[in-house]
Amino acid sequence: MAFDPFEQIDKEENEFYGVDPNTGAIEDKEYYYNPITGRSDADAPLSQEENFANAGFLDNILSGIKAGASGVLSGQATLSDTFLGMGGDMANDLNEIAKRNTRTHNWNFDTITSNPMAYITDPQGLAYDAGNMTGSALMMGAETAALGTMAGAAGVGNLSTLANYFAGKAAAHGLPSLSRALSSKYGSLIVANAAKTPIEVASESGNVIQDMEEEGITDPDQLKKAAAVNALIQTPLLALSNTAESMGLGTMFGKNVTSKMGKAALGAAGVVGGATQQSWEEGMQRGASDYAKGKQPGGLTSVVDPFEWTQGQKDEAMAAMGPGMLFGGAGALGSRIARRWADRDVNDVDARDFNPNDPNENGPTP
Fold first, then answer.
1. Nearest residue to 220 via CA among 88, 90, 96, 73
2. Which of 197, 176, 187, 141 is nearest to 346 (CA)?
3. Torsion angles phi and psi, residue 166, rounded to 5
4. Structure confidence by residue, pLDDT tens digits, 16-41
């Protein structure tokens, strides 16, 4: 009978139970051997050191994506487990994936600013950070898109419809600037990022709990309090940051610019502005997390004021600067994908031509 590499071998009937045909190693459990990967399900996953040994740029980008995406889900699952008692095993598994894909050579504010070229050319430098930010942005973008799709299915309306509805409400309450922003081509992105905020806050609050548990803190009340404090700080700040991220610095002020040089300057301003916004957001999030854990020496003002930031905040902000410049604000990547998924059947022109003063175009009644 021909050897079947996926055949399960019975220990009681085969004295060679658990023998890997490639290495001859004996495993004391039933398993399936995969000839494509050269590994069996009895093998332990690659360790962090194995994962990054001789890894090139593409490997590090992929590891960064996996770490970013699994970190988002792990935080959310941890928050669910702490408050609802559900998702604990999933949180642990996802946290292990994030750890195995966390780079072994860490870059910080001092090492990046002192030798930026080394940071760019190191596979565990800019390439890894870009992958990490992409992974988290794509995951939150996908979750936001799912919310938008469910809202549409429930009859609430898609992102463009909701943007039009809130634009009408803003106009009715004497907020013309907000109304114009929501009825512009950025309206869907603003709504998408507003929907993304609680998703991001949930992940960040769950990560606070994980950090405290790793430090040996297990009191449920203490963990819940820290998560709640983090959420209270981050929710309004992220809402503002995500709104600015939606619109972009260059496009906000470049409406009437027509010259090539002017458009180039505004494009550069948009890239730098997006990177600055993303860096501030990362530094703020680190400060809010440390404040919630009782480790922020400067108090609440040091959460938002870059001139009062701790070394940890500076490190987080600098790690976001490079990818932020590459993507023109990497977080917008997830929001744009969310809009494309949730509004794929809507013509953007409808949103741009929307008249907030027309009572017939105020969207659905909640």
1. 88
2. 187
3. -70, -30
4. 344 555 565 555 444 444 444 455 54
